[in-house]
Amino acid sequence: MSVPVQHPMYIDGQFVTWRGDAWIDVVNPATEAVISRIPDGQAEDARKAIDAAERAQPEWEALPAIERASWLRKISAGIRERASEISALIVEEGGKIQQLAEVEVAFTADYIDYIAEWARRYEGEIIQSDRPGENILLFKRALGVTTGILPWNFPFFLIARKMAPALLTGNTIVIKPSEFTPNNAIAFAKIVDEIGLPRGVFNLVLGRGETVGQELAGNPKVAMVSMTGSVSAGEKIMATAAKNITKVCLELGGKAPAIVMDDADLELAVKAIVDSRVINSGQVCNCAERVYVQKGIYDQFVNRLGEAMQAVQFGNPAERNDIAMGPLINAAALERVEQKVARAVEEGARVALGGKAVEGKGYYYPPTLLLDVRQEMSIMHEETFGPVLPVVAFDTLEDAISMANDSDYGLTSSIYTQI
């Protein structure tokens, strides 16, 4: 039996072989096979990366912005050259369908190019002073060392989302990918290494949130930490960063409402809502998680919705191109979705479609439709992060807006009407 590839970290411009004994298995969620191993990195590893970023930052900031932008364009070119390889990694480790993985990789390269264009656009200001013959010049300086803590649902794009603006504006960065989807980040680091980006400007540390992530948020040398993930993880990051009054940028969970009015184009509404819910197997924070349907079209709408969800094909994305979704990311995610649906049923909801995990290998959960749902049920307030749609009927638009706003989450909402 072959040993899974063991990945190194990327610190101070070189790949660093892990000397520790503890490793984390990276599992293909479609098959449950171990596909690679990464170091169970510790705070010391994060500190080494932060120190490297600190050493590199002054010289990096001293470069003209247009030169920093040219490095970003080299990275985006490298991504395009390796697009097929990277998208295959995302499919394998994340369970994402091939088409969506390809879009993620292409969009990542485009986003980096977009940020590079800002080299000519971010500017200071000249302000008239209160004293005659005097003006005040304001110019922008880099923060210093920044860190990025990534999720697993759009792992490759989020590297660029954290890195590109930081590097363009003269900062250096340390990235920690999710331990569930690190392989694509290794590919990113290889591109950085091949183009010869100055040492220490980009660093990649592997490990868990409670060790590496906490150091990236709590180290006093870090000027800003950017994190995308769950609300609970965001709370921990904010609490840790607060000890040094470190700047924090968080993108957390969502519970996006979709409102369907009596006069809505039902074909459009059904397609948009189903697509929104099954994309990436429902593991997208800003896609529809709850549906409010006006009573005049409720029966017609839920019938069409059920038919559309029933038609959704799912399976192993490495083997099939005719599917709309793959598995959930891991066993814990599957269990959470099962528990949320079970609790909804206990509270009075009815499973009209799906509702049970698929037997066999892989963390598959089918498209699930919940009816007889009431606003006070937990399924209408807690993020599900799976292919589950609860539907509530309403009388007036005011009622729908009131229920849509009855949430602790922000992010997105949608309404379907001809008004």
TrEMBL record:
<comment type="similarity">
    <text>Belongs to the aldehyde dehydrogenase family.</text>
</comment>
<feature type="active site">
    <location>
        <position position="251"/>
    </location>
</feature>
<keyword id="KW-0560">Oxidoreductase</keyword>
<dbReference type="GO" id="GO:0009450">
    <property type="term" value="P:gamma-aminobutyric acid catabolic process"/>
</dbReference>
<dbReference type="Pfam" id="PF00171">
    <property type="entry name" value="Aldedh"/>
</dbReference>
<dbReference type="GO" id="GO:0016052">
    <property type="term" value="P:carbohydrate catabolic process"/>
</dbReference>
<dbReference type="GO" id="GO:0005829">
    <property type="term" value="C:cytosol"/>
</dbReference>
<dbReference type="InterPro" id="IPR016163">
    <property type="entry name" value="Ald_DH_C"/>
</dbReference>
<dbReference type="InterPro" id="IPR029510">
    <property type="entry name" value="Ald_DH_CS_GLU"/>
</dbReference>
<dbReference type="InterPro" id="IPR015590">
    <property type="entry name" value="Aldehyde_DH_dom"/>
</dbReference>
<dbReference type="InterPro" id="IPR016161">
    <property type="entry name" value="Ald_DH/histidinol_DH"/>
</dbReference>
<dbReference type="GO" id="GO:0042802">
    <property type="term" value="F:identical protein binding"/>
</dbReference>
<dbReference type="InterPro" id="IPR050740">
    <property type="entry name" value="Aldehyde_DH_Superfamily"/>
</dbReference>
<dbReference type="InterPro" id="IPR016162">
    <property type="entry name" value="Ald_DH_N"/>
</dbReference>
<feature type="domain" description="Aldehyde dehydrogenase">
    <location>
        <begin position="22"/>
        <end position="418"/>
    </location>
</feature>
<dbReference type="InterPro" id="IPR016160">
    <property type="entry name" value="Ald_DH_CS_CYS"/>
</dbReference>
<comment type="pathway">
    <text>Carbohydrate degradation.</text>
</comment>
<dbReference type="GO" id="GO:0004777">
    <property type="term" value="F:succinate-semialdehyde dehydrogenase (NAD+) activity"/>
</dbReference>
<dbReference type="GO" id="GO:0008911">
    <property type="term" value="F:lactaldehyde dehydrogenase (NAD+) activity"/>
</dbReference>
<protein>
    <submittedName>
        <fullName>Aldehyde dehydrogenase A</fullName>
        <ecNumber>1.2.1.22</ecNumber>
    </submittedName>
</protein>
